[in-house]
Design goal:
Distance between the termini: 39 Å
Helix content: over 70%
Largest sheet: none
Structural class: mainly alpha
């Protein structure tokens, strides 16, 4: 009897197929699928830079100097928006694609269980999103000739907490998509809502900090434009940042589990 068998079919640290190998395999698979369609991957990056160029050059023609004075805020906000879009759409599409391919049900019979496998897929989406958004950020800085303070640790932690809340929303919407199949109008509406969340006036309306992305956006602006390091923020700001990330991710994951369980009980988990 193997170690996994004695533990009820779940792998342990001594198992050959441990969680490290699961995470590595899922990230590799996600990147491989993304790179297998190079035209689609390249167009995603091009479109991201193209929309920023429209805002930047179009804004210069209309607002002139006023836009130049706020260009750092525009870059940071757009960077966070690309991160949130990638995490939200990626998480939701990963679930719906698995359902359409007929492979979603197989996760229930893996040694790891359904939840850990889907969590690994969500982390893989976030990893890829960070890579692509970093490329877009570098091109935006090159295009505008702007310099920002890029402390990697601070940016990764703050932006990571911000997109964790969005990831929870993406998982919840993915679960709803598996259960109800067609919810395209709702998911598209939420994508535009992220713009308002990123620009939420946290300083003027304190409760807005509890919304997804709002606190992360405010802190990321200070980190990248005013060179504020992670340990230099007020403790309450860090608590709100971490709290919103944990709460929205947990609630979204719970919603995903409940909706997919309901779809399984109705026999529509693999329907498309």
């Amino acid at each position: 009897m193997t170690t996994a068998d004695r533990d009820g079919g779940r792998p342990t640290q001594s198992s050959a197929g441990g969680y490290y190998h699961l995470m590595r395999a899922v990230i590799y698979r996600d990147l491989l699928i993304w790179l297998r369609y190079p035209v689609n991957a390249a167009l995603g990056l091009v479109m991201g830079v193209f929309f920023f160029a429209l805002m930047f050059y179009g804004g210069q023609m209309i607002a002139g100097r006023a836009l130049t004075d706020t260009i750092e805020g525009l870059i940071v906000g757009y960077f966070l928006w690309t991160l949130s879009q990638g995490a939200y759409v990626g998480a939701m599409s990963a679930v719906q694609s698995e359902a359409s391919w007929g492979t979603l049900e197989r996760h229930y019979i893996t040694p790891f269980g359904f939840g850990p496998v889907m969590a690994a897929k969500a982390i893989a989406v976030v990893f890829r999103t960070f890579l692509t958004s970093s490329v877009v950020l570098a091109l935006m800085l090159l295009m505008t000739g702007t310099g920002l303070d890029l402390n990697v640790l601070t940016i990764v932690v703050i932006a990571g907490c911000g997109i964790a809340s969005v990831l929870g929303i993406g998982l919840a919407m993915g679960g709803l998509g598996v259960l109800y199949k067609r919810i395209g109008n709702v998911t598209t509406l939420l994508q535009f809502a992220f713009i308002g969340l990123i620009s939420a006036p946290v300083f003027d309306i304190p409760w807005a900090a509890s919304l997804p992305l709002a606190q992360s956006s405010t802190m990321l602006q200070r980190a990248m434009t005013d060179n504020v390091r992670l340990w230099e923020f007020e403790p309450i700001a860090l608590v709100i940042l971490l709290g919103t990330a944990v709460v929205y991710l947990a609630v979204g994951y719970l919603g995903f589990i409940l909706t997919t369980r309901r779809a399984r009980s109705l026999g529509v988990l693999g329907d498309y």
